Structure formats: C-alpha cells, structure tokens
Amino acid sequence: MTELAGSGALVTGGAGAIGVAVARRLLALGAEVTLADVDADGGPETAARLGCHFVRTDVRRADDLTAAVQAAGARGPLRFVHLNAGIVLERSYDETDESSYRRIVGVNLDGVFWGIRAAVPALRSGGGGAIVASASLAGLVPVPLDPLYAMTKSAVISLVRSIGPGLGAEGIRLNCVCPGFVDTPMAPAVVREMGFPLLRVDDVADAVMAIAAGDDNSQAYVIQPGLEPFAYRFRGVPGARTHGDGGERTVSATGIVGSAAPTG
Ligand SMILES: NC(=O)c1ccc[n+]([C@@H]2O[C@H](COP(=O)([O-])OP(=O)(O)OC[C@H]3O[C@@H](n4cnc5c(N)ncnc54)[C@H](O)[C@@H]3O)[C@@H](O)[C@H]2O)c1
C-alpha cells in the first residue's frame, strides 16, 4: 500500500456523504487530508470537525482543481486523490436545458478529467500514489430516468481505462468505483419507496480504501449491496481483419485501438 501516514490526500466533494467517510479513513491512517468542495457554508465546518483542511473548489474549473491539489500537496507529499464530487440531474433527455447539461458534465466529467490532469504531476513528484474516481453503476447500465448522469459516469469509466495504463509505469494507479444506490440524500426517493437494497456509505468508503491499498490499475469496481466489490470485466472488441485473409489482427501495440482480448 502507498504509505499514507504523513502524506497529503485530497478528496473532492469532500463535504458530502461519501467524501466524509473516505476522509475519516484517511485521517485514521495518518494522512493530512484536504477536502475540496463547492459548499462554502458546510464545507469548512465539516473539515474543522474532522480535522481536515478545506479548500473551496468548484471542480468544473481546472484552475480550482490545480489550487486544491497544491493545497493538499503543501501538507505532505500527495499520495492519494479521490475525485468524488458528483451531482444527479434526474431529468429525461427532452427536459434537459443547456445550463443543466453544462452543469452535470462540468461537475461529473470535467471535474474528473481536470482532477486527473492536476493530480498526476503532484503524485509523480511525490513518487507515485493512487487516484480513485467516483463513477457509478449508472455508468455501466442504461438509466432512462437520468441519462446525463449515466453518460457522465460512463465517460469517467472510459477515462480511467484510457488514461490509467499509461500511468502505471510511474507508480500511479488510476481506478474508479461504480456503486449502486447508496444511502445518501442522492439516492432517489423512489428507490427508497421500493425498498431497494441500499449500500451504506461505509461500504463505498471501505472499497475506495481497499482499491487505494491494492495493486490494480485502470479498473472499474462494481459495489453492490450483499456482494464483495469486484473489478468489472469488459467484453473484448473483435480485432480488425484484413480483407480476404480471414485472420484477426489487433491494432493494440501502440494503444491506439485497444485489444481484441477481453480487457479488465
Ligand atoms: N449516493 C449514491 O447513491 C451514489 C451512487 C453511485 C455513485 N455515487 C457518486 O458518489 C459521489 C459522492 O456522492 P454522495 O452520495 O456522497 O453525494 P453528496 O451529495 O453527499 O456529496 C457530493 C458532494 O459534491 C459536492 N459538489 C457538488 N458540486 C460540486 C462542484 N461543482 N465542485 C466541488 N464539489 C461539488 C457537494 O457539495 C457535495 O458535498 C458522486 O460522484 C456520486 O455520483 C453516489
């Protein structure tokens, strides 16, 4: 495991339910924890209660993420980043206006992409570490009630699988978690009314920490009530065939297209 005692750790969306649970675990391991959140009212209070540093951060803004990474790195060599800020829209595609579209893409996707961009140089200079992004099961299954949420979470999974392999040689591991419904205010009321099994916040936080402690890279971990978290196995895509020869060739050597074989 990456040694976290005395290191810097950053949690975006850190004032929220899952962010706080992850922060508690990081603190217990002796990390210096910075919570980055847009919540300028509750965020500082939450951070003070936990014993964390707080940086007001709008993850839609690349500059804010750079500043948050700098703040976290100033408290110890950065070794762990949880790109966790996220919102739901709960609107059908034909009810979605442009500002709602920009908002959810900004928080859920830009926040992860620019978070990775900001965190990697800091992790590299500290000798490596782990990034865990909060995707969702909604990134792996169709979600007619919130298609933009599903779209952004699918994109997070794709970023992790596309960027992660190139970071491994530098001792940086990039993975994401794909929880089902969690017992936080974000879980839709209808899900509670149906009595659908909900994850506890602790289930997600434990999985995040286990991934941080493990060796895996570029994986999307499914977290569901009653199941052990597992790395989702994506089906492979058949490789390109040269006309006429019937053979199968993959154009994967440079990573341009990827492998025909099932990939993690
Ligand atoms: N709760 C669930 O059912 C569930 C399921 C799967 C995945 N997730 C994902 O887990 C993550 C955390 O969810 P949660 O349940 O703790 O939600 P939450 O609402 O309790 O926490 C989200 C936090 O993100 C912050 N935030 C929102 N916009 C931001 C912005 N522009 N910049 C910085 N911070 C911002 C909020 O202030 C809040 O503190 C999210 O990415 C969510 O999509 C949640």
From TrEMBL:
<dbReference type="InterPro" id="IPR002347">
    <property type="entry name" value="SDR_fam"/>
</dbReference>
<protein>
    <submittedName>
        <fullName>SDR family oxidoreductase</fullName>
    </submittedName>
</protein>
<dbReference type="GO" id="GO:0016491">
    <property type="term" value="F:oxidoreductase activity"/>
</dbReference>
<dbReference type="Pfam" id="PF00106">
    <property type="entry name" value="adh_short"/>
</dbReference>
<dbReference type="InterPro" id="IPR036291">
    <property type="entry name" value="NAD(P)-bd_dom_sf"/>
</dbReference>
<keyword id="KW-0560">Oxidoreductase</keyword>
<feature type="region of interest" description="Disordered">
    <location>
        <begin position="243"/>
        <end position="264"/>
    </location>
</feature>
<dbReference type="InterPro" id="IPR020904">
    <property type="entry name" value="Sc_DH/Rdtase_CS"/>
</dbReference>
<comment type="similarity">
    <text>Belongs to the short-chain dehydrogenases/reductases (SDR) family.</text>
</comment>
